[in-house]
Hints:
The chain is mainly beta. The protein is built from 4 helices and 32 strands. Strands 1, 2, 3, 4, 5 and 6 form a 6-stranded mixed beta sheet that branches. The two termini are 20 Å apart.
Amino acid sequence: MMKSIAAYLFAALVAVIPAATAQVTVNISEGTLKPTPIAIPVFEAEGADRQLATDITSVIQNDLLSTGLFEITPESAFIQRDLSINTQPRFADWKIIQTDALVVGEVDRVTIEGVEFIRASVRLWDVYGEEVMRLEGQAGRRFTAKPEDWRRIAHKIADTIYARLTGEDPYFDSRIVYVAETGPKDDRTKRLAIMDSDGANVKYLTSGTFTVLTPRFSPSNQQITYMSFENNRPRVYLFDIQSGRQEVLGNFQNMTFAPRFSRDGQSVLLTQAVNGNSDIYLRDLVTQSTRRLTDHPAIDTSPSMSPDGRQIVFNSDRGGSPQLYIMNTDGSAMTCPSGGRDTACRITFGSGRYSTPVWSPRGDLIAFTKQSRGRFSIGVIGTDGEGERVLTESYLDEGPEWSPNGRVITFFRERAPGAGPQLWSVDLTGRNLRQIPTPTQASDPAWSPLLN
């Protein structure tokens, strides 16, 4: 029975209206200059479900608005108000108020094998093309979930609309893990917290008895790796989100820190300090074997793997100051962008100190933190060291992490000395800078893959 019920969760059901090629498109690189107007009237619902429909619609609107790519047409401008998901809208009424796209939906309930679920159906209309737009190959989509998961339904609808209009992969139906900070500056409590991508549904994963830092999501399962100072010894831990179980990663005799999962989730990259020298290691979670990846008298740390698993970017001061380097995962020599061959190639040569590199899930860019002239910034650079761009700058901007689709970066910021850290996000244009709400001060964010 449980398998049958689960099959209905977030199921897409085929609608029967034929669709032609739509004309509405969103230029994601220039979207913040001229957002696309889109109307999202409150979904239809009966009785007590009207408030639920209002809440779902609000989340969809906020998700799309947060991208900087869309402008939500206000309800006060609507001419047509008798909308139905089963009826073609009066396109002339929506052209008058200069709306490019129209979302029409409804919410109801269904009982499956004695269990009640909510359903949300949606269709997307191209106003000027006067046609329904296909959503993942169908003229309409329907999502089904348990009542407590209504926000996930909203995020998935927003993802579907975003993907259809931009041609990009979605990212709203995901989560962010971070370090929640409370207490005075000289006695901070730092514990793991997790929330929806928009800051809702905050849950605390650790008690705060021991300080935690640098949480990172597994790309393949519900695990987080992080560093903790339990028993006054900095070590890397694994945390299973579903069971709440945590365990030390390996019985290392020395300090371990800066963990990050490999792209297949089967291993963890980490830094180990031996006799005062920090190098990068790879710990296999299946065989429990450990392989040393760097062997240099300099400080090598903060490794991040490329999407294909073949290369690793890391931070090293082997050139005299902290800079970014790329190496092959197998340790073999490679041709460097600047010429010559080496086992590690430097890719940053600008003024300043570079740290916390993170390879984009798209594979084309590396995000980093840069310290220069007494300020900190978040930037991106090509994997060949070309095209460096600064996206943000403040008293302290640090710890970039990519959204699942590689188009948005989350990080933490302190506006001024003693102000305390908060979570922010910025898109690749650098124009759409937004604060992510959290109930406490927050640092070290990391974005999950899309949820199943």
